[in-house]
Amino acid sequence: MTIDQGIETTEWYFKQLRLNKIQKIIFQESWKGDSYIEIANNFSYDIGYVTDSGSKLWQLLSELIGEKVTKKNFQLVLEQYRSNIHDGKTEFFQKSVTEPISYATLNAGECQDWGEAIDVSFFCGRTAELVSLKQWIVDDRCRLIVLLGMGGIGKTALAVKCATQIQEEFECIVWKSLRNSPSVLSLLTEIILFLSGGLQEVETLETVEQQISSLIELLRSKRCLLILDNAESILQSGQQSGHYRDDYEGYGQLLRRVADERHQSCVILTSREKPVGLTAREGKTLPVRSLQLSGLSQLEAKSILQAKGLTSEQLGIDQLVQCYAGNPLALKISATTIQSVYDGNVSKFLQQGTIVFGDIWDLLDQQFNRLSDIEKQVMYRLAANRNCLTLQELQKDISPKVSNRELLEALEFLQQRSLVERQQTLFIPHPVIREYIAETLILNAYLLEKEIHEP
Ligand SMILES: Nc1ncnc2c1ncn2[C@@H]1O[C@H](COP(=O)(O)OP(=O)(O)O)[C@@H](O)[C@H]1O
Ligand SMILES: [Mg+2]
């Protein structure tokens, strides 16, 4: 077949199949014999997005033709099919082809509000997490997914990445940050107006219940992806961790109903702490799931440092990654400091001993102020000990005495917030957090002394 014939043929297929943009590109380039990697590179697409869209395309064609279609054999199978049509042996794709692709073709870009979503053009790793999320959302049709992890670990970045990779699954996408703690009524009003295209008369919905019902109705009528970022902002800190702040209990109702009621949409929540009431609704076969994020791998973390101008062969790079337990934010901030203060010399930076500074300090301050007394004590004990501690050792140290259950609960919370990691029966805080605590203890002692001397 000549190139011209090839183009004529692919165009004929485009018309028959009504493919969307990415499907057309994959079809055309695969016809030319290009690999997924080449397609991703040539068209500046994410490789995961290309392979996913590709496998969906072959699956769709397999269903239509009733024969297994793959990237390797699609040309052969389709040409055979086309010649059968010419010979009058079969009609072209009796089944409707528009239905499964309609979201993508109908709505591309029309019903999307990405709000404060961050740019993820540079993104590394998280392959396993993306696979799980996509399976939960696309295959298992989960209604509520919670992304958990400490500040800076990459929850927001992962949510954006995932959403961009599966956007064609959805008719509408809405991204909302809860950072400034909007009231549930104002949040719902905005979302309802957006999803209904301004048609829903929100003024008539007086109560939170009515608004939630109206939203669920919309989530039932179209497949929407709703992302609520920074949900810790509407949760209490301290003893009542995971409980909603006063006047924010409406969010609890919203999440419970999104989880429990039948609809075809998905809500992704990112938070440092898990809101109460969700654990009981979660399960491998249930439509509510949560994903706890830990740090990036050594290799992935190194590519972040590399992007910030440090080379992976540099002395001390591995140690730097370990120091920050693969926390991308901490790595990015430290890399910037290493460049500007230490002339790009990682070892010099590590030698100065203090690995907590600037923004990370603020980041950890925020985390720490949210802890209850027991949790703080546990953190102090763990930080004061260079070795990992067992539960019994910890309990001995804490005063006033606490029960096993209280201690386990505290440890559970600290693990959830990624402040403490568990290695079998031992507990350890992240290195960066240990450093932070050591510093704050010094600071507190210093402040106390000042208070005594200068009342
Ligand atoms: N997998 C990743 N690859 C590259 N950069 C990342 C990755 N994950 C996070 N980052 C970057 O690290 C920083 C912190 O990530 P973010 O998603 O804001 O964390 P969180 O939402 O958990 O507080 C951001 O600048 C983000 O772009
Ligand atoms: Mg975030």
Features:
4 domains; 20 helices; globular; single chain; binds magnesium ion; 8 strands; 455 residues; 8% strand; six-stranded parallel beta sheet; two-stranded antiparallel sheet; Rossmann fold; binds adenosine-5'-diphosphate; alpha/beta
- In angstroms, what is the radius of gyration? 26 Å
In CATH, the architecture of the largest domain is: 3-Layer(aba) Sandwich
Overall spatial form: globular
How would you name the CATH homologous superfamily of the largest domain? P-loop containing nucleotide triphosphate hydrolases
| CATH fold topology of the largest domain | Rossmann fold
The number of distinct β-strands equals 8
> How many domain regions?
4
SS content category = alpha/beta
Share of residues in strands: 5-15%
Q: What ligands can be seen in this structure?
A: adenosine-5'-diphosphate, magnesium ion
Gap between N and C termini: 91 Å
Describe this structure in words.
Helix 11 links the parallel strand 4 and strand 5 (266-271). Helix 12 (298-307) packs across helix 13 (317-323), helix 17 packs across helix 19 (404-416) and helix 17 (373-384) packs across helix 20. This protein has four domains: 3-100, no CATH class; 125-292, 3-Layer(aba) Sandwich (Rossmann fold); 298-351, no CATH class; 363-453, Winged helix-like DNA-binding domain superfamily/Winged helix DNA-binding domain (Arc Repressor Mutant, subunit A). It is globular, with a radius of gyration of 26 Å. The relative contact order is 0.08. It is an alpha/beta fold and 455 residues long. Helix content is 53%, strand content 8%. Bound molecules: adenosine-5'-diphosphate (ADP) and magnesium ion. Magnesium ion (MG) is lined by residues 155-156, 229-230, 270.
